[in-house]
Amino acid sequence: MRHIQRRQQSTAFGAAAALHLSIAGFAGACISPEEVLMALDPVPDHHLAGLRRIEFSPEEARCCPPSVVAAYLQRERCICFYRLPAWPMFRHVLHHEIGHHVFALIISSKVKTQWTQRAVRRGAPASAYGATSVGEDFAECYARHLRGEPVDSASAAKEAFMRELVFSGAPWTLKEQQLL
Ligand SMILES: [Zn+2]
User: Fold this and answer.
1) Which positions carry the signal peptide feature in this UniProt record (predicted)?
2) Which residues surround ligand 1, an ion (CB under 5 A)?
3) Which region, left, alpha or beta, applies to residue 25 given φ > 0 means left and ψ of -120 to 50 means alpha?
């Protein structure tokens, strides 16, 4: 198990919550702990605040349908992988699940409301999976933006939303840090 400690950046959002993130279950797996860290590289520190664990639990795979690769468990503040796909898909799924964490616990309710009321209406979902709910569309767009890919060819508004309201770190876009 690895514990990640990053130097806290002094950013516009003030005192950041300390990171207490552990990575477990990947030793000897087809995705190594180093690759998990590599996938976390582009993720801003404040998007990982409050996330406690990223784990690989293949023994729990039997409890979910074969199509389910991973899940964000909000109550446990944990991203759990049940199966490990090859690297490009692994990275996408990890970023997607971090997108769920950001949507649930990092951005302010004001920003969340703007996403549900405005951005989604203006454009098509980022993918077929993104069409299943507002939260899924957010997570898909988040993952694409993190990789520097176009969020949605049909919606410049979503691109701007990610840049200005999700990744800017401006204080009003974030939840009160003590909630974490
Ligand atoms: Zn999802």
Assistant:
1) 1-29
2) 136, 139
3) left
